[in-house]
Structures are given as structure tokens and as C-alpha cells.
Amino acid sequence: MTQIDGTRALVVGATGALGTLIAERLAERGARLALQGRDASRLAESPGAVETIAIDLTDETAPEEIVERAREALGGLDLIVLAAGVVGFDTAEETGPQDLETLFTVNALAPMRIISASVPALRGSAADGRGPVVLALTGIVAELPTAGLASYSASKAALAAYLTAAGRELRRTGIRLLDAHPGHIETGLADRPLFGVAPRFPQGHDPAAVADRLVRAIEDDETSLPPAAFSGT
Q1: What are 60-117's pLDDT values in tens digits?
Q2: Within a 10 A sphere around the Cβ of 154, how many other Cβ atoms?
Q3: Which of 17, 104, 108, 120 could form a disulfide with 159 if both were Cys (CB 3.0 to 4.6 A apart)?
Q4: Do residues 16 and 35 make contact, with C-beta atoms less than 8 angstroms apart?
Q5: Could you count the other beta carbons within 10 Å of the beta carbon of residue 73?
Q6: How far is it, in rounded angstroms, from Cα 130 to Cα 6?
């Protein structure tokens, strides 16, 4: 059982609907938080934040700067939540080069670089017996690529593959990687696509219930959250 009280946690995407809820749940349990997002004013309103990092994930040095600032402010890292993401809707023929690059930067490359940069701090956490965890949300499209979401599905699947392989490497040092594959969540993200128009989705998961499930998975030492893990949320 992982104790969140006193955990040094970095939440990436803390100004998004789901990231905000996760940060709130962690703060309620006594975590010390470093929060990343693009909106400095919204970050300033977040409860329990020791450090706020207003930086765009597409900035060239953002991943490494985020990790370094969080590590310095918190005195180490025990938990990283990767909750940032962008979505776009179009066919394979229509996907623009810049749109594709942005999708992969935010959804795959930046999270990979954050994990890589955080390994030394997480290894130190493991050596101290603190049970470090990285939680990422790749979603159901990582295992069920969807027509009209080819580029988005591919960006999420790339991160999921990375998490699987990296998780096998890092578990030997006591670092746990947790990949979550919820279906559509009612966060409003689909209404703010990077490009295109969202299809009509069925009613999605309740964000608050998903946040509760994710935090419970951290506490219960889970290593995988398939879509079925979110049934009823």
C-alpha cells in the first residue's frame, strides 16, 4: 500500500479538468505538489502547491525544466502524474504536418522526456523506500485505435509502448509505471480539439470518479488500468 501523505508529487497538466481533480485528491491526502500547466493564474489558485510551473509542453526545453524545478522545490520526487494531452479529429489524408508534430510532442515525446529526466530522482526515492510511481493516461485509443482519430491514437499508443518497455526496465530499481486506459471522459477536451470536429460520443466517464479511481490505483500499488477498470465511473 502506497502512502500519499508526504509524497513529493509532480502533476503535469494540472490546469486541465482531470489534472485539477487529481491534484486536489493528492492534496487532500497530504501530498506536497509541484503543478505544471500553461495558465499561471489558474495554477496560482491550486490548493497545496509548493511550486507552480507555467510552461507549455511544446517549448523546446520544457520537459527537463519541469522536472528540475519540481525536484528542487520538493527536495525530490516520489510521484509523477502525466495528465496533459491534446486531441485532434481528421482523416489520415487530412492530417497536417504541424498538427501531427504537436500531437506527438504533447501526448508522447514530452511525457517520455519527463520520465527519462525524472529517473535519477525516482531512483533516489526508491532507495529511500518511498515507492515511487509514474502514472500516465494513454486512454482506450492506445489499444483500440479509432477511425478519424488515427494521429491521436498513434500518439497515445506510442506513449503506451514506451511505458510498457520502460516499466520493465525501471521496476528492477523499484520504480512503478502505471498506465491508465479509460474510455472517453467528460472533461470537455473533445470540445476543444487542436483541429477538426469531434464526432458524437456516447456519454463518457465522470471525471471525479476517474480521478478517484486513479488515486486509488496509486495507493493500491496497481500497475495497469485497462478500460474495464473504469466501468461504473
Answers
A1: 999 999 999 999 999 999 999 999 999 999 888 888 899 999 999 999 999 999 999 9
A2: 19
A3: 108
A4: no
A5: 17
A6: 10
Nearest to 230 by CA among 61, 18, 86: 18
Mean pLDDT, the chain, integer: 94
Q: For cell 474495464, name the residue.
A: 228
Determine the pLDDT at residue 138. Answer: 97
Q: Which residue is it, cell 482523416?
A: 91
In contact, 71 and 77? CB cutoff 8 Å: yes
pLDDT digits 0-9 by tens, 140-172 = 999 999 888 899 999 999 999 999 999 999 999
The predicted model gives 192-213 an average pLDDT of: 90
- 121: Cα separation from own chain's centroid: 18
* Contact present, 175 and 182 (Cβ < 8 Å): no
Rg of the chain on CA atoms, in Å: 17
Q: What is the pLDDT of residue 17?
A: 94
In the structure grid, which three cell numbers stand for residue 202, read together? Answer: 456516447
The pTM of this model reads: 0.96
Asked if residue 141 lies in contact with residue 157, where contact means CB atoms within 8 angstroms, the answer is: yes
Per the CB < 8 A criterion, the answer to whether 61 and 37 are in contact is: no
User: What Å distances lie between residue 148 and 53, 86, 90, 110, CA to CA?
Assistant: 33, 15, 5, 24
Nine cell digits for residue 26: 493528492
Give the span between the Cα atoms of 55 and 63, in whole angstroms. Answer: 9
Query: Among the residues of 9-149, which ranges form H helices?
Result: 17-28, 40-44, 62-74, 97-104, 110-127
